[in-house]
Here is the input.
Amino acid sequence: MAKITEIAPDLFRITTFVAPFNIQFSQFLVRDEEPLLFHTGPRALFPEVKAAVASLIDPQTLRWIGFSHFESDECATVPEWQQLASHSEVVCSVVGKMVSVDDCLALRPAKAMADGEVLETGRYRFRFLATPHVPHCWEAGLLFEETERTLLCSDLFHQDGDVEPMTESSVIDRCRKTLVGYQQGPLANYVPYCSVTDTTLHRLAVLQPKRLATMHGSVYVGDGSKALHDLAAVWREVLGPLPLCCIRSDHRAIGDHDYNTHVNPS
Here is the structure.
């Protein structure tokens, strides 16, 4: 059964822990004049998520369905939600609408959001932020709620485990541990590190969010700007360009199997 936590007035975290993968999947429901669901969850979780949403609003009144990028846990059940809520629209990036959403996913044309454009749901104002390749995918974007200063940040601050819903303690060590662990297996490099990564994270930090609402892990409540700068440092360390000491004499990068020895000896 999904767990529901109110992380800000009428902004709810709906979370299911999937033990075999040691990971939480969270969706965020905004109960407002025009209700918004950010993340739909994968299809296997739809019955639980639907029941949780129904305990908070009439699902037929859902107006907006948002997500960061084209991936199962972000948007797999958009068609099911749009069948339930006949007036609902997907809200996504311009790139998302053009290259994927309208053709592959949504039952109705999506509302494309330009960078910096604002979506008003009633008492809340959500500023859309185009964040290509952060956390991943060309069409990626995030929503920043300006009233309570909550950043709906998708896979940023990913923490494995069945952790608490909210915390005022730093989650950076958890994020680093999760990312380093992923680098050891088939999910390596699930966050690309590229020329826009640092710039994007620092741009988000300027917003000075008070809450960082991640899909996987605890919502962090506190100095969101510092946390984003800290995350940028972790990503640079774990995912950034390899230092010369990690380049082999034949000019190839040291493989993942050597990561702990050469980059993370502890």
About this structure: Residues 7 and 13 are 7 Å apart (CA to CA).
